[in-house]
Design goal:
Layout: H1 3-37, H2 41-48, E1 58-66, H3 73-85, E2 93-102, H4 108-118, E3 122-128, H5 134-144, E4 149-154, E5 157-159, H6 163-171, E6 176-181, H7 190-207, E7 219-223, H8 224-234, H9 242-253, E8 258-262, E9 271-273, H10 280-302, H11 310-323, H12 325-346, H13 351-371, H14 373-385, H15 388-394
Parallel strand pairs: 1-2, 1-4, 2-3, 6-8
Antiparallel strand pairs: 4-7, 5-9, 6-7
Helix pairs in contact: 1-7, 1-11, 1-12, 3-4, 8-9, 9-10, 10-11, 10-14, 12-14, 13-14
């Protein structure tokens, strides 16, 4: 075997291992670990889980964090209201919507006030006068609430009308501390739809191991009595990825309780977005913030809590491998390029013909980038993902932007 073929094999095998673990590997390992432990989770949760008063109303507060969201906030609020209106008065549930305004400089407040005046449900506003940042406004919203359950909702999220109806059973189950509705983007193509389907399958598998350790931040519901101790443990750090640090901490703190992932029986997901596509620059900053946030929780939660709950650690390791996906993709590119070079070297082609083939493939890639929104977004994610090692070394110097 030539050195070129050997290097191609090494790169491709490395990428294959990384991609398998970042998809089915971690979830399957957590599932098997849970089964081998033979933990009687139902009995343990019954003893340790919160007790509910059968005659009392269950209160639910929908908390919407907003920073300059005048274009999308009304769409989100109307979808929440529709979901609340679907709940029968006999269900013994009480709902409220509160919007947390985090240093908005546009007309978000005016839009929310207009909605509140005509809303069929109780709706209010909480202003954040302190330090700016999504993590800070979420903490303020959660701590001011007195509800049994809180839903953390991103501005721009659109709910299916039956989301709350589907979540009622989970909110009445003492073994459930969180409910994560499925999410799918509204403007992705077939490839992105398949990606979300794969993610739903993996999170369904994780349901059998106590639930996912990362959720989609567009919407997630938490039992407030278990959420508050998790926030206390997370402390005053400006965590950038709330959709990972909260469920991961909850799973580590409460091994007998579950986070339930919900898949819609007839539609792509329970939650989608409003269809507004971010500019490339904004998308890159968002992806970079996510990369920095991933480094943050791996250093601050994953490694320190490695042996706290090994099944949870295995599931979280899938996310760790996923953080490095840019390097798995780079290994595929390098391995494939070397394999192509080796193949062309064995075929009787002139230098001009080889150059023409390589140039044609390069132009195809450029054309894909220009013509596909998914390809552009993946490119932004790829470039930000390559920064993970640098972010690991300089994390203490990062200012941390939590909104973009």
């Amino acid at each position: 075997m030539s050195s070129t073929a050997y290097l191609a094999s090494v790169f491709l095998l490395t990428a294959l291992i990384g991609l398998i673990w970042s998809t089915v590997g971690g979830s399957l390992a957590g599932f098997l670990c849970t089964r081998l432990a033979r933990r009687n989770s139902a009995a343990a949760a019954d003893a340790a889980g919160p007790k509910s008063n059968p005659g009392a109303k269950t209160t639910v507060e929908l908390l919407v964090a907003a920073h300059n969201e005048e274009k999308v906030i009304a769409l989100t609020l109307r979808s929440l209201q529709t979901a609340i209106e679907r709940i029968s008065p006999d269900a013994n549930f009480e709902f409220k919507i509160t919007v947390g305004l985090d240093h908005c400089s546009d007309k978000t407040a005016t839009v929310v006030e207009s909605f509140a005046k005509t809303a069929t449900v109780s709706a209010g506003i909480l202003e954040n006068a302190g330090a700016a940042g999504k993590w800070y406004i979420l903490n303020k919203l959660i701590k001011q609430s007195s509800a049994d359950w809180v839903a953390l909702v991103d501005s721009g999220s659109i709910w299916e009308a039956d989301l709350l109806a589907a979540a009622l059973a989970g909110m009445q189950d003492g073994t459930v501390m969180g409910i994560a509705p499925s999410y799918s983007t509204s403007h992705g193509g077939a490839a992105e739809g398949l990606n979300w389907k794969l993610e739903q399958f993996l999170k369904q598998l994780e349901n059998s191991s106590g639930g996912p350790v990362s959720v989609h931040g567009a919407t997630v519901l938490y039992r407030r009595s278990t959420l508050l101790p998790a926030l206390a443990q997370l402390g005053g750090t400006l965590w950038l990825n709330d959709d990972v640090v909260i469920p991961l901490t909850l799973r580590m703190q409460n091994p007998a309780l579950n986070i339930a992932y919900m898949i819609h029986p007839t539609k792509p997901a329970f939650v989608s977005d409003c269809g507004i596509t971010a500019e490339i620059g904004v998308e890159y900053r968002r992806r970079r913030r996510m990369a920095a946030g991933n480094v943050q929780w791996i250093r601050g939660i994953f490694f320190p809590g490695f042996f706290t709950n090994f099944a949870v650690t295995l599931i979280a390791s899938r996310r760790v491998a996923r953080v490095l996906w840019a390097y798995w993709a780079l290994a595929i590119i390098l391995g494939s390029s070397l394999a192509l070079m080796e193949l062309l070297a064995r075929i009787d082609l002139s230098l001009l013909q080889r150059t023409g083939i390589e140039l044609s493939l390069g132009l195809c890639f450029v054309g894909l980038f220009i013509g596909s929104n998914l390809a552009r977004r993946l490119s932004m994610a790829f470039l930000s993902g390559l920064q993970v090692p640098r972010l690991w070394k300089s994390m203490s110097k990062e200012s941390g932007v939590s909104w973009v």
